[in-house]
Amino acid sequence: MDVNLALSPQAIAFARLDTKPKVLARMAQLLSSAYGLDEGEVLESLEAREALGSTGFGRGVAIPHCRSKDIRRPSLAVIRLDTPIDFAAADARPVSLVCGLVSPENAGATHLHALAAISRLTRDETMLQMLADAPDTDAAYALLTNQFLRTAA
């Protein structure tokens, strides 16, 4: 399955954030600046989705996601947290990797395929360890783009 997922080098950050609201705010900032979206709208949409139930996926990963009328294809941002935080994840483990996704408003199946691709990526223990060990955001970007290109091929 080919997921045409956008990933900009500007959409990757290593950060010291200590609460879920701060993580969501930083994610909205990353997504909006990397993909030309309205930061307030993205934050509101991420918060609304999070209010339905935690996007803490388990195994130290959260995948906050939303949709936007202003984007043409699913777009990803990634934050690696310096210190894991409580995200009310399904397995109660603190989160250290946050993969934010914004998809086009009417992208039903495409949005689900993008979430599934991120989910597969974050279930790979080797990949999680390589991301945790990446010395900088450029290295993390290279890891992620290589992984998504390999998956799409």
From TrEMBL:
Start and end residues of each PTS EIIA type-2 domain: 4-147
Cited InterPro entries: PTrfase/Anion_transptr, PTS_EIIA_type-2_dom, PTS_SugarTrans_NitroReg
Protein name in UniProt: PTS system nitrogen regulatory IIA component
GO terms of molecular function: protein kinase activator activity
Taxonomic lineage of the native organism: Bacteria, Pseudomonadati, Pseudomonadota, Alphaproteobacteria, Sphingomonadales
Domain of life: Bacteria
